[in-house]
Amino acid sequence: MSDRTELCVQCVQHVAVSLSSTSDTNSLKPMRTDRFRRPARHARRAFSLVELIVAVTIMAILAALVVPRVSQWIGFTKGKTARADAETISNQVRMYMTAKGMSTLPSDFELVELTEGDGALLNKNQIMDPWNNPYQIRIPGEINLDFDVYSFGADGQAGGEGEGADVVAGDKRN
User: Is the whole model's pTM more than 0.90, yes or no?
Assistant: First the structure.
């Protein structure tokens, strides 16, 4: 036999003798390596103060960039909603005129009349603009011949620019 084979045979015999001499099989434990060990509790590292400050600064910069855009978008959306609602109310006024057999509205007509009675065409919430101000009606109209349904805009006052501009049904200028 070669030296290598003889060495292997001796190793096997040694292991066999070791195993047979121990009566307690629980004493044999699997070998553990460092690769499979969990890190010790004290080895876990928390964020440093500098890391936290950097993270908060990045979030603040992102918020400063995003918030104005979102506010601008919300204002734009409210203006579009007000225009669509004014068009809807204008159509309901025309239906009211047809149902009552009117060719023109009386000068003292109020939009609240569309919300009253059994045949109400709108509910009270529908005559409020997105800024919680009531829609107005102007008889005769400045934009439309017979009447204008309009909102004063975000500022709640006649005139204005930007979000505060009046929103009139049928106005194609803006």
Answer: no
- To which residue do tokens 């204002």 refer? 75
Both tokens assigned to 122: 């709108």
Residues 103 and 97: beta-carbon distance below 8 Å: yes
How many CA atoms lie within 13 Å of 102's alpha carbon, on the beta-carbon side? 13
- DSSP β-bridge partners for residue 148: 138
Long-range pairs, 122-129, Cβ under 8 A, ≥24:
122/89, 122/92, 126/85, 126/88, 126/89, 127/89, 129/82, 129/85, 129/167
Please report the domains of the chain, with CATH numbers, ordered by start residue. 51-168 (3.30.700.10)
Q: Which pLDDT belongs to residue 115? A: 80
Structure tokens at 120: 């109400």
> Once rounded to an integer, what is the mean pLDDT over residues 77-94?
87
In Å, the largest CA–CA distance within the chain is: 124
| CB neighbourhood size of 136 (10 A) | 18
> Could you tell me if 138 and 151 are in contact, meaning their C-beta atoms sit under 8 angstroms apart?
no
